[in-house]
Amino acid sequence: MEEDKTDFRGMGDQEDTIFAEPPADGTVSSLRTTTLSHKEFMSEAKRELAAIFEEDPLLGDLFPDITVDEVKAKLALEHGQAMLVNVERGDGELLSTVVKLDATVMDLKHAIQCHVNLREKRRKNGVTAISWHYVWKMYALCFEKQKLTNNSKKLTDYGIRNRAAVTFVKQLQRNK
Question: Residues of the chain with pLDDT > 70: what percent?
Answer without folding.
Answer: 74
